[in-house]
Amino acid sequence: MNIILIGPPGAGKGTQAKILENKYGLKQLSTGDMLRAEVAAGSALGQKAGGLMERGALVPDALIVDMIAGRMEQPDCAGGIIFDGFPRTVDQARALDAMLADKEKPLAAVIQLTVDEDELVNRLNTRIRQAQDAGQDVRPDDNEETLRHRLEVYHSQTAPILPYYESAGLLQAVNGMENIDAVSTAIATILDKAVSS
Ligand code: AMP
């Protein structure tokens, strides 16, 4: 089973992906995590992506599609993938469709996590405080100004994916304002139905 989690930054995609990994034996592929690893390693991709990420801009589609195409071939993805933070543009969505069609492993569902913007700002500030309290580094794009820009990018470049998947009959919205358990129960209900149909 392959699924996509889509939603603005701070909607809880990563948290829910971890829960789904355990429950369904799927592999979470977070393009944000993969890019941060490239930046930390100082690779050519990391050098191209780092500045864009820091500003909250998207990394070019071709780089992202190449990166994820390679990762999807790894054996740990054979049991199915949770795409977290990908696709983020309609062109990425089309590229993913083509890759999955080649493998004859279509998407089971696209889950949209909806969260109010005020709540996203609250969550960001909590995350920053918790990282500081724990003596951890705060991500360079985790500040209120960059979050606002990431939200604009989400609305202008990523939200157009929603009608794309809606017309394919795959889109399901879940209220991401609820607590973690309630959200994961709602997602599980959708996935159990998708698997059994
Ligand atoms: P995330 O951890 O998913 O919030 O991603 C952090 C940053 O990585 C984003 O703000 C983008 O700069 C970049 N990024 C992650 N995934 C993608 C993607 N699918 N397409 C373009 N840029 C991405």
Give a written overview of the molecule.
- The chain is an alpha/beta fold.
- 59% of the residues lie in helices and 13% in strands.
- The chain has helices at residues 13-24, 31-41, 44-55, 61-72, 90-103, 117-133, 144-158, 161-167, 180-196; strands at residues 2-6, 27-30, 81-84, 107-114, 171-175.
- It has a five-stranded parallel β-sheet, sandwiched between helices.
- α1 (13-24) crosses α9 (180-196), α2 packs across α3 and α4 (61-72) runs parallel beside α5.
- The chain starts with a strand and ends with a helix.
- Bound molecules: adenosine monophosphate.
- Residues 9, 31-32, 35, 52-53, 56-59, 64, 85-86, 88, 92, 141, 150 line the site of adenosine monophosphate.
Short note summarizing the structure:
This protein has helices at residues 13-24, 31-41, 44-55, 61-72, 90-103, 117-133, 144-158, 161-167, 180-196, and strands spanning 2-6, 27-30, 81-84, 107-114, 171-175. By secondary structure, it is α/β, with parallel strands linked by helices.
Global mean pLDDT: 95
- The counted number of beta strands is 5
Report how far the terminal alpha carbons are from each other.
13 Å
The gross shape turns out to be globular
Helix residue percentage? 55-70%
Low-confidence segments, given as residue ranges, are none
Largest sheet, spatial ordering of strands:
2-3-1-4-5
Summed up, the helix count is 9
Structural class by sheet pairing and helices:
alpha/beta
What small molecules accompany the polymer chains?
Answer: adenosine monophosphate
- Portion in strands: 5-15%
Largest sheet: 5 strands, parallel
Please compute the radius of gyration using only Cα atoms.
16 Å
Question: Helix and strand string, N-terminal first?
Answer: EHEHHHEHEHHHEH
